[in-house]
Design a protein that fits this description.
- By secondary structure, the protein is mainly α.
- The strands form two sheets. Strands 1-2-3 form a three-stranded mixed sheet. It has a two-stranded antiparallel sheet with strand order 4-5.
- Helix 3 runs antiparallel to helix 5 and helix 7 packs antiparallel against helix 8.
- 29% of the residues are buried.
- It comes from Urochloa decumbens.
- It is found in: Membrane.
- Pfam families: CBS, Voltage_CLC.
- Keywords: CBS domain, Chloride, Chloride channel, Ion channel, Ion transport, Membrane, Transmembrane, Transmembrane helix, Transport.
């Protein structure tokens, strides 16, 4: 399906746009295998540049968030301020703006009647482009990393190539190495584009194939693999940062989950990977695209369980066969059911995972009973259906802390009780999805309220 969709998209785009590449590819030449160490060193530099871009972006986001908290600057005004700063930078360095890859052609000196830029100017462009890209991301301007990575990589490779030519093969070389023949700076510019793209976007294979298709020269593969591999190896683990990358954190959580699966049932207290709120993770990765702060405790502190709970629940009794409980979960597309008695007092919460753990324990003890003979009471008596309930007037943050402390994703909502372990009349349930929806709705509501307030103030002033 991937190949078919890619071929169809390529055919349609070539019909409409033609087969010309996005930017003009200069002639590539690979002079000698003795150049390979130079390409490996370029990969190291591109990896460091990739880390600089990521670190600068994170620092810019933290700085802008601190500025917004200190000055009360609304996020709706942030793009305008960011555009002003980037515009001032562009007055001195117009090449940092996006021209549809024409500025990449200028860097690679592939356009006719174009004078090349000196290595000093190219190094300045690298720094200014990193700063401009970081500010754009921090102030909420629309943009990505793909085009800036190509620009920064081209500037890095061209500056590196010109410096190497001046050092080894210039009119008056600083180091005279008879067996070393340095290629043109354009060759290093192309490899630098792929290496930086791989380091920033974490796509080494895509970078290699992209450049190989552009040059259509198999000689570029060897230096390309070396430079891209080193750049990816340096940039991907964030070796020069104390903070863990997202991939590292996910791997750590996965290993914790695997260790917990091997522990006894009584000792299992871990959070499942599925409990990670996808919207909050997206805000952590792309916080410049979020119009609200997902971690604003002041905003969410007044939310109660009643504002987030769901009342459409499904219940079973202690004498219900497990097969019927599973059929109810499948029919209603819900991973749990409530266990209640005759007067709808909650007894426990039966989750699909509880049944799975019970079946594994029964298989381990070589229980001879057939599956259809197991009742809900068997799972409850095995200690898998612990009850942790909340009340409607309880703060939503407290309910979330109870979930985190006991490693559960759903909590019954009861009418009243003296403490967390007492039973009560079941009126609904709350889960992590409910909490996420309630917070997002409150955030959007606050955002629109502040926007309307700003609009009223502006109309009254005029």
């Amino acid at each position: 399906m991937v190949i078919l969709s890619s071929v169809i998209a390529s055919v349609i785009s070539e019909i409409g746009l033609g087969s010309d590449p996005a930017f003009t590819v200069p002639e590539y030449d690979f002079r000698s295998p003795t150049e390979l160490p130079l390409y490996l060193l370029l990969g190291v530099f591109c990896g460091l540049v990739s880390i600089t871009l990521s670190s600068c972006t994170s620092l810019a986001m933290e700085t802008v968030e601190g500025l917004q908290r200190a000055t009360g600057l609304p996020k709706a005004a942030s793009p305008a301020l960011g555009g002003l700063i980037v515009g001032l930078l562009a007055l001195m360095y117009p090449e940092v703006l996006y021209w549809g890859f024409e500025n990449v052609d200028i860097l690679l000196e592939s356009r006719p009647f174009t004078s090349g830029l000196s290595a000093n100017i190219l190094v300045q462009l690298i720094g200014v482009k990193i700063l401009a890209t970081s500010l754009c991301r921090a102030f909420g301007l629309v943009g990505g990393y793909y085009a800036p990575s190509l620009f920064i990589g081209a500037a890095t490779g061209m500056a590196y190539g010109k410096f190497m030519r001046f050092t080894f093969t210039g009119p008056e070389p600083l180091l005279h190495v008879p067996f070393l023949d340095v290629a043109s700076p354009q060759a290093y510019g192309l490899v630098g584009m792929a290496a930086t793209l791989a380091g920033v976007c974490k796509v080494p294979l895509t970078s290699v194939l992209l450049l190989f298709e552009l040059t259509q020269d198999y000689r570029i593969v060897l230096p390309l693999l070396g430079a891209v591999g080193l750049s990816s190896w340096i940039a991907s683990p964030q070796r020069f940062s104390k903070s863990k990358s997202k991939l590292d954190s996910l791997e750590e959580k996965s290993s914790v989950a695997q260790q917990a699966n091997n522990m006894p049932i009584q000792n299992k207290q871990f959070s499942s990977m599925d409990t990670i709120d996808s919207s909050q993770e997206l805000c952590k990765i792309e916080s410049s695209l979020c119009v609200y702060d997902a971690n604003d405790e002041n905003m969410f502190g007044n939310l109660t369980v009643a504002e987030a709970m769901k009342t459409n629940y499904f219940s079973v009794s202690m004498t219900t066969p497990l097969i019927e409980a599973l059929d109810l979960m499948v029919t209603e597309k819900q991973p749990f059911v409530m266990i209640t008695d005759s007067n709808t007092s909650v007894i426990g919460l039966l989750a699909l995972k509880n049944i799975q753990d019970f079946c594994k324990a029964a298989e381990t003890t070589k229980a001879q009973a057939e599956a259809k003979e197991f009742l809900v009471s068997h799972v409850y008596q095995a200690g898998n259906c612990k009850l942790f309930s909340v009340t409607p007037q309880m703060p939503l943050t407290t309910a979330e802390k109870i979930m985190d402390s006991h490693g559960v994703d759903h909590l019954p909502v009861v009418s009243e009780h003296a403490n967390l372990q007492d039973r009560g009349l079941l009126i609904g349930f709350v889960d992590r999805e409910c909490i996420s929806i309630a917070r997002r709705a409150m955030s959007v509501k606050e955002f629109f309220s502040s926007t309307c307030e700003i609009g009223r103030e502006e109309r009254s002033s005029t």
